[in-house]
Design goal:
The chain is an alpha/beta fold and 493 residues long. 38% of the residues lie in helices and 13% in strands. It has a domain at 2-258 and 470-488: Alpha-Beta Complex (Amidase signature (AS) enzymes), CATH 3.90.1300. The protein contains 17 helices and eleven strands. It has an eleven-stranded mixed beta sheet, sandwiched between helices.
Length: 493
């Protein structure tokens, strides 16, 4: 089993193409891995029968000479993507029993390319969280542990289930969504690659909405090459999404053949946040040295409005969430708590269906959109958002990409911050500006903390220039040459 589950996406495609194994064999090994790792709580819904059926169909297509870009590769799908006929919950009680009659565009693209679905992964409820502890189905456990310490760690959020599935070798790759760092932060915490594309690069159709002007789907993989392959399949124009941009999708993997020689890499001084551990700063410095050695030029830049990104985000995102989540009322789908009066049914259903963090953000969002506060809070936050974008636009006049740490710390313990929302929100301080500006951002594993936990570096690029972002990430990945993976302690648990 381990021989199959240790395969990267590109290695799996090569093995399938050579006939070394079938998709059914590959998928069965991953189905067994998922079943053996239920203690990690990475999956909300497992679909083994469907996976093996899709794998068999893939093998039939391959024999007939019809091969997609991801033919026969078993994937995990974040349970924020609607999957036709398969339970889709957003890890919320309020979507109990919801089986969509349609498929999200991103997952439809993956199935069209021949990929196989292993199941739906756990997440923070409605993607609201930075640790994957707000899920109605319980927290996800990071497969990494500190050496000699049995304390369970968070995998990051909201895409923690997808990150754990990839890191623990339960799936070859996974989909994630990123509203304020929800792909990149869990990728950094689990030693995986996470790419948040430019806003509008991947369709949002069929993705349960959190904050519509910020949400973006992206791949979560174990290597940059894998992310490049998966990104090419996920991306593309979709007329069902009014924010989808009609722009050509490059062959990202082919673009990786170009070196970073001559690229200018910006280092923003504002990303040196107070209290950031010395080891994070040292890793950042190491990243600069790696890129210099690869022929890139490193130069200091300024993004002066960075300090306002997080507070502005926590006005914009909850405001949009309060509007998006108004549709969950117990009338058409999901949970319904019966009551004598319609208004009481609404109130009781929403009170029972939403968790504490979701209720908190709905209340914040409703407040900042209310009469008398809209101009003071929401409009001002949108003006700050424009200033943040302007900072990046100016910076990209003199640099081709920007390098920063992904997170201010390594993974922390389950329960350590769950009662301190402000401390939890600060986990996204380095990732949120990218979403506010709608830019592509990548987290690439770059080292280990002094306690043996993964640390990531973040590459930020120009709009729709994921190719350069991935090239820079590839240079870091090659230089770091990390071979470590989490010990499979959960199999004995």
């Amino acid at each position: 089993m381990s021989a199959f589950t240790d395969l990267t996406l590109t290695a799996a495609l090569e093995g399938l193409a050579k006939g070394d194994f079938t998709s059914v064999e590959l998928t069965r090994a991953h189905v067994e891995a998922v079943e053996a790792a239920r203690g990690l709580n990475a999956f909300v819904t497992e679909t083994p029968d469907q996976a093996l059926k899709m794998a068999a169909e893939s093998d039939t297509r391959r024999k007939a000479g019809t091969v997609g870009l991801m033919e026969g590769v078993p994937l995990a799908i974040k349970d924020l993507f609607c999957t036709k006929g398969v339970l889709t919950t957003a890890s919320s009680h309020i979507l109990d029993g919801f089986k969509p009659p349609y498929e999200s565009t991103v997952t439809a693209n993956l199935w069209k390319a021949g990929a196989v679905m292993l199941g739906k992964t756990n997440l923070d409820e409605f993607a609201m969280g930075s640790s994957n502890e707000t899920s109605y189905y319980g927290g996800v456990v990071n497969p990494w542990r500190k050496p000699g310490d049995n304390k369970n760690l968070v995998p990051g959020g909201s895409s923690g289930g997808s990150a754990t599935a990839v890191a623990a070798r339960l799936a070859i790759a996974a989909t994630g969504t990123d509203t304020g760092g929800s792909i990149r932060q869990p990728a950094a915490f689990t030693g995986t690659v996470g790419l948040k594309p430019t806003y509008g690069r991947c369709s949002r159709f069929g993705i349960v909405a959190f904050a519509s002007s910020l949400d973006q789907a992206g791949p979560m993989t174990r290597t940059i090459d894998d992310a490049a392959v998966m990104m090419r399949v996920m991306a593309g124009f979709d007329d069902k999404d009014s924010t989808s941009v009609d722009i050509a999708v490059p062959d990202y993997r082919a673009d990786l053949a170009q070196s970073v020689k001559g690229l200018r890499i910006g280092i923003p001084k504002e990303y040196r946040v107070d209290g950031m551990p010395a080891e994070i700063d040292a890793l950042w410095q190491q990243g600069m040295e790696w890129l210099k050695a690869a022929g890139a030029e490193v130069k200091d830049i300024s993004l002066p409005h960075t300090q306002y990104a997080l507070p502005a985000y926590y006005i914009v995102a909850p405001a949009e969430a309060s509007s998006n989540l108004a549709r969950y009322d117990g009338v058409r789908f999901g949970l319904r708590v019966p009551a004598d009066e319609l208004a009481d049914m609404y109130a009781q259903t929403r009170a029972a269906g939403f968790g504490a963090e979701v209720r908190r953000r709905i209340l914040i969002g409703t407040y900042v959109l209310s009469a008398g506060y809209y101009d003071a809070y929401y409009v001002k936050a949108q003006k700050i958002r424009t200033l943040i974008l302007n900072d990046f636009t100016k910076a990209f006049e003199s640099v081709d990409a920007i390098l920063t740490p992904t997170t201010p710390t390594a993974a922390f313990g389950l329960g350590d911050k769950v009662d301190d929302p402000v401390s939890m929100y600060l986990n996204d301080v380095l990732t949120v500006p990218v979403n506010m500006a709608g830019l592509p951002g990548l987290s690439v594993p770059a080292g280990l903390s002094k306690e043996g936990l993964p640390l990531g570096l973040q590459v930020i690029g120009k709009p729709f220039d994921e190719s350069t972002v991935l090239r820079v990430g590839k240079a870091i990945e090659d230089a770091a040459a990390l071979k470590q993976k989490p010990e499979a302690w959960w199999r004995a648990a």
